[in-house]
């Protein structure tokens, strides 16, 4: 079976982890600082705080910008979000005791539909969650215009949280994600382009949010203070979301090779783009010239997904839709909404293997197997 996912582990990672394990200091320390500095240099934003997952990052992001501690919110606060994502995106809203308002998807990109988003912003909107699905950036300039209009109309500007879990290395208008004025959250979970085993990072647009993120990832306690002689006060309580040096060492080792990993995802995707364009019964997603996808996955829309999946299975190729629509789960039944694009497109979405482990021979076999069916 050609796998749909792989682990991009550097041969240098075991020794890097072993060094930390034997050092007597395995918590959050110098390796975390080093990893953060390296990430900040890559992203082009110095305000990077590592965490133990993107899930923690999304929960922290919403807590920072819109969070209710349970006592301040009127129970009416809404977060506008896409249902086509990993549940981590949307359960972060529930964890912050905010309400979900579903926004439809754009069938061309599988990202949030910005027209539907513009229609749904209201005085109740506390924040907006967008996902760069597959690593293909949301049109952030158009989103900025929508926020300008909302600000003019309602007198406030909702904060945007970019779920960049799929999108390490992706760019919009020539700049990496994490530099477009929003809060952005990356994942370094096992099967991402860049893995630290498990881990994530929150990237902040201003110094005050960055300061709070660094404090709230570890109970709100200032780790730089002299905790023995002069224990610091905790003005704002926080979580236990920090990264440790073991994960940071693995992340650092993998960061050294991540550009090659990313390049191979992109090369495989470019091959599929060329070979599959115009194949009847199959539609590829949008490619705009102003953004470069990270192609964490390669989604497409097929007319008869059942038989497509069966044929791929017979050909030894693992395929799947990767994320189930979130809005049909029982725990979010009360937020149910009419989402016509999602309704039509969700049953057509399927992803084929595109990652760095897919060889030239395998990608040719994948294309031939897809084309044979039509
Ligand atoms: C879109 C999206 N958001 C968030 C997450 C959660 O990431 P993590 O496993 O690092 O918590 C994932 C994980 O795959 C994801 O795909």
UniProtKB/TrEMBL annotation:
Transmembrane segment boundaries: none
Translocase recorded as keyword: no
Pfam families per record: DegT_DnrJ_EryC1
Annotated keywords: Pyridoxal phosphate
InterPro entries named among the record's database cross-references: DegT/StrS_aminotransferase, PyrdxlP-dep_Trfase, PyrdxlP-dep_Trfase_major, PyrdxlP-dep_Trfase_small
Cofactor(s) listed: pyridoxal 5'-phosphate
Domain of life of the source: Bacteria
Record-stated family: Belongs to the DegT/DnrJ/EryC1 family.
Protein name: UDP-4-amino-4, 6-dideoxy-N-acetyl-beta-L-altrosami ne transaminase
Record organism: Streptosporangium longisporum
Gene behind the chain: pseC
